[in-house]
Amino acid sequence: MRSVSAALGQEAAAFLARPHLLYIGGHFVPAADGKTFSTYDPSSSEHLAEVAYAGAADVTAAVTAARTALDGDWGRLPASARGQLLARLADLIERHAPELAELEAIDGGKPVVVNEAMDIPAAVEHFRYYSGWPTKLEGSTIPVMAPGTLCYTRLEPVGVCAQIIPWNFPLMMAAWKLAPALAAGCTIVLKPAEQTPLTALRLAELVHEAGFPPGTVNVLTGDGTTGAELVAHPGVDKVAFTGSTAVGREIAARAGADFKRVTLELGGKSPNIVLADADVAAAIAGAFDGIYFNSGQSCVAGSRLYVHRSLYDDVVAGLAAAARQAPVGPALDRSTGYGPVVSAEQYHRVRDYIEDGIAAGATLLAGEVPPAEPAGGWFVRPVVFTEVNPDMRISREEIFGPVLVVAPFDDVDEAVTLANDTAYGLAAGVWTRDLRQAHSLAARVKAGMFYVNGWALGDPAAPWGGMKASGIGREMGRANLDAYLEVKTVWTVYDPQ
């Protein structure tokens, strides 16, 4: 088997061969203490690179650089110039799309064809969408009771933002975080997940090439310890985090104690409902994509499927057949539809859930228990469980892998009860020809996003986020811009009485 670097295009191979340093204050530098960590290819478990490991001194340096930029060159830029820089960055990402798609594939295990079709274009569109916002952010004048008084509001950037992104959509999530914060005029310290640091570092090079003032965007690679140092740093004004609910709780507690602004996009155990009048073929295809896209490693995965009893056997049979035929393989193989899970740790986590489901009495209709010690990459084939009940761990806990539980229901009220029986509230959906019934369910099911005859639809202009244990605040759209803006009220007495 040839090495990963030999299978890459020239640009991606050249990047992989370069030193992988921190980006602080417009410079690429090693960690202050010289520490590094390793990153691996999930398709082969091959070592890819050594990456700088940011410690407390690096966090302070990055936060200081961000503050200097906020008070200096970046903060003084007119709104139109901010928009132009965002548009320039979008163009650079688009120009380097093939390289970025390959880097994402080898570092995170997502098929290169998926990166080309979705992740990279979505990142480009986020920067393009938000590039139009800086010149549209307006305060307002307020007709107050006091005579001879002018009262107006200003929209000002929150300040220095710590942004911590996950490993399942590394470049796209970086765009989700960076674009609105930059449009609002904030400065940023971005920390990618330790499993997938490469595209964030390549993005830092493109930020540099685009001409953002030094310190506007800083990128620190490291693990949870690095993230904790960043969250706790007194120079950080806001924390934005996407990741697990458990870590989100810790961040919320720390940010609350320090009165820092916070947005959290967390986990889910999302219900997908197939009503008796659904288009069966469309429901099977949509439910399959809803759970198995990115090998189930999505916060919005439709991991609980509830099917009206009249359609249950047909839907289950269709899903099982599709699962058995799914093209699972290495991420750089252009025939691959579903890659490996991201790491050995995630592989064993998913494997443990599959074993637990079998032990609890669920029926493993499709898929298998992956080997305890895989040869090569961390591949888990799509799993379909039937004969499940709501108390099983596989029904209640977020697995973050290609594992679907399917259960029947007899009426709509039962489906709503099953759907809402969860600590999470990120997404939900329904498959039906009856739009009246669809919109009734949209009102009754507790979720931040609700899909009718589709799954995981998104657009930079449309808010994304959840309720309950699925998070606080929203990504995307004007709603996310507001999370990076402070409203200041100004009073002027011009005609004292």
Automatic annotation (TrEMBL):
PROSITE patterns in alphabetical order: ALDEHYDE_DEHYDR_CYS, ALDEHYDE_DEHYDR_GLU
Domain Aldehyde dehydrogenase: from-to ranges: 29-490
Protein's UniProt name: Aldehyde dehydrogenase family protein
Record bears the keyword Transferase: no
Family: Belongs to the aldehyde dehydrogenase family.
Keywords: Oxidoreductase
Keyword set includes Oxidoreductase: yes
Domain of life, source organism: Bacteria
Residues annotated as the enzyme's active site: 265
